[in-house]
Amino acid sequence: MEGDTTARADLGAAGRGAGRGEPLLRVEGLAKHFPVMAGFPVRRRVGAVRAVDGVDLTVHAGEVFGLVGESGCGKSTTGRMIARLTEPTAGTITYRGLDITRLGRRRLRPVRSEIQMVFQDPYSSLNPRQTVGTIVGGPMEVNGIDPPGGRGRRVRELLETVGLSPDHVNRFPHEFSGGQRQRIGIARALALNPRLIVADEPVSALDVSVQAQVVNLLREVQRDLGVAFVFIAHDLAVVRHFSQRVAVMYLGRIVEVGDRDSVYSRPRHPYTHALLSAVPEPVARDGAGPGPDGEGGGGSVRERIRLAGDVPSPADPPSGCRFRTRCWKARERCAAETPPLVRLEGDAEGHLTACHFPEEPTTAARGGDVVLDPAPTTEPHPGTSP
Amino acid sequence: MNAPAGAAGTPEPFLSVRDLRVRFSTEDGTVHAVDGLSFGLERGRTLGVVGESGSGKSVTALALMGLHDRRTASVTGEVLLDGHELTGAPEKKLERLRGNRVAMVFQDPLTALSPYHTVGRQIAEPFVRHTGASRRQGRLRAVEMLGRVGIPQPARRVDDYPHQFSGGMRQRVVIAMALVCNPSLLIADEPTTALDVTVQAQILDLLGDLRQEFGSAVVLITHDLGVVAGTADDVLVMYAGRAVERGPVREVLRDPQHPYTRGLLDSVPRLSSDPEEPLVPIPGAPPSLLVPHPADGSRAPDGGGPLRGCPFLPRCAFSGRVEGGDRCRTERPVLPAGRGAACHLTERQRRTAFAEEARPRPGRP
Ligand SMILES: Nc1ncnc2c1ncn2[C@@H]1O[C@H](COP(=O)(O)OP(=O)(O)OP(=O)(O)O)[C@@H](O)[C@H]1O
Ligand SMILES: Nc1ncnc2c1ncn2[C@@H]1O[C@H](COP(=O)(O)OP(=O)(O)O)[C@@H](O)[C@H]1O
Ligand code: SF4
Ligand code: SF4
Ligand SMILES: [Mg+2]
Ligand SMILES: [Mg+2]
């Protein structure tokens, strides 16, 4: 296709394995505000849900960027904006040097084939009336792409890549288990040789024994095909097993981002710390045997940091630091000033956190007996009171 | 965890389930959702029931509450609560028990709450119904319960509607409603699955505190072994409608005996394991529990389940080590009373087999 070649040229030279030069994806100040409508008979705009409210992130070619956070913090909305399925309210999305934030359909087309999406629900994300062959071959059909050897052959190859039998091309989604359906979704995402896959909770709906199969498949896809991922999940342990860099979101913003090991072993934001300590691990809880953490050891039971309350409503976020209503370290400054995301360690893409009083770098979230009581709440939590 | 008692002298456990079977007849055939389940539970203890989706956990919970539709579900076996037989008991009797002596918490707090009534009224309702208390007393009790489950300013929040609460607070309301009559048995089916981890931690702590306070027996159903690890005393592992392993939670986590339990533990990604290593999945997927109707259009016989031998066989790496060739395929392994697993491997075979296929598993020696 003619349009394709020109646009591909536009995209510049930053290709696969370009290392830490020009990033594959750069997102700056990204925001999405959904209008809140009310009133009768004339509905009008009475406010906005700040689903995403100023997100910066960078993904390099072949890298897995993990995005974690609790329900409603804006992960999916961020992912959908990157895949250009949701229009941003503000901010820019730069893909291989090209600003794609407002590209029209025609010019977006080549980019669309390079950025694919995998969804959470293995049941509703596949058309029940299409065969596996039609589903996986769909993107080639839509984009008029005829791979050498033909589409049929490519579909069979793709099925093999994701661990399904090529003989399954004529079957329908309902004949497959949840894990197998997720494989079909991944095969479809791979059909156009994407450079970036936005995977929104691709394993959250699966049972652990099958989830492990799909996580391993994603790891192979990333390693063998060099595909980069924005990997969205709420399960911190899963994210740790698949990501090189990890960002933690809270109420529409990134509160901490850094290399995996740095974030997991030396969390600097109190929220990250609390999240990590709340993960229930299937480890026998008594004196004997090694503890869950290598160094803590000795079977020490990790105390949970009990966060008070819930996440406030994104329609009415707290002033200053959005985490302050649940933070045990909150002080006056936290309500007055919004903490910027600043670098604590490493280079500009090192370990960043948005907190006026970050945790000590030595804090081990997995350490023996961290007992941190939340600061007494002096005011009702926004969003949870009537 | 007690052996099924019955013989004179052995006391019945507070809750005793024997050979529970639940079958659904559907258009396509019969679903053997629970296929011969037995367990016991004492007062003041928490039994964790774990298993992957479709293993029969929720169907078991509904059977314990007598909530299955008698037209489509056939429930057989024995459920004895403090000596009273529940299976087949008249609906009137069950209704008296429900909400009073036996209460249930479901996964989704919204389905358990009516949007049209204040939370106070909903919490008070079973209390008023079962104790004959006045409305005013009911309201006071609701305020007390809201405080107990950690809702700030309970006297003010009691007149709010469910939509004015967040997800975690709604689940607290549901728990308050379940505990309002001091039930002696609480069945919680995935009570935290819909919640975020930080809120889950709050609710699990709350369930633990309340159990201590009320001395209730708790059946905690979950797919998450981590939840069981922090909350339960004993654990029952379910697979394909059967119990495949049981024991004190510490022993099961540290030294699993059933190949399925072991596989499940291995496949959980952990914060402490080497993230560069691939995860260790169990190959394949759980079997179908459906026995299709025969092709001639007649109904499937109601007899045995879909699986003759061990339901885990197609996914099991160790069946080759069982002596007697075909036993895993032809003979259903039984779950012994007390600590044990429903598996044909002898203890020696299992120890050798598990040791030879050792995998680095953190948290266990
Ligand atoms: N179309 C929409 N209209 C209005 N509000 C929306 C819309 N989509 C999302 N939101 C709101 O935006 C916020 C962020 O939603 P989003 O789906 O991105 O969260 P998430 O982090 O993916 O959560 P989860 O873990 O539950 O999937 C939420 O408060 C959500 O209710
Ligand atoms: N009302 C029903 N009719 C037919 N099959 C059912 C019904 N309820 C549950 N089942 C089947 O019974 C099995 C066990 O279900 P369930 O107890 O809900 O599993 P879980 O362990 O995930 O809670 C599944 O195969 C399910 O599809
Ligand atoms: S800025 Fe203040 S409220 Fe926010 S995380 Fe840091 S200490 Fe807590
Ligand atoms: S009975 Fe056989 S197939 Fe079943 S778990 Fe034991 S060894 Fe495996
Ligand atoms: Mg989402
Ligand atoms: Mg269930």
Give a verbal description of the structure.
The complex is a heterodimer of chains A (386) and B (365). Helices cover 27% and strands 20% of the residues of chain A. With 386 residues, chain A is an alpha/beta fold. Chain A has two domains: 2-8 and 23-34 and 47-243, Rossmann fold (3-Layer(aba) Sandwich); 263-281 and 299-380, no CATH class. Chain A has an eight-stranded mixed sheet, with helices on both faces. A four-stranded antiparallel sheet of chain A has the order 2-1-4-5. In chain A, helix 1 (2-10) packs across helix 3 (105-114), helix 4 (132-142) runs parallel beside helix 6 and helix 5 crosses helix 6 (178-190). The longest helix of chain A has 18 residues, at 208-225. Chain B is an alpha/beta fold and 365 residues long. In chain B, 32% of the residues lie in helices and 20% in strands. Chain B has helices at 57-65, 91-97, 109-112, 119-131, 135-148, 154-157, 167-179, 197-214, 225-231, 249-254, 259-267, 327-330, 347-356, and strands at residues 15-25, 29-41, 46-50, 73-81, 84-85, 102-105, 185-189, 217-222, 234-239, 242-248, 290-292, 340-341. Classes of the chains: A alpha/beta (386), B alpha/beta (365). Chains A and B meet through helix 7, helix 8 and helix 10 of A and helix 7, helix 8, helix 9, helix 10 and helix 11 of B. Adenosine-5'-diphosphate binds next to strand 2 and helix 1 of chain B.
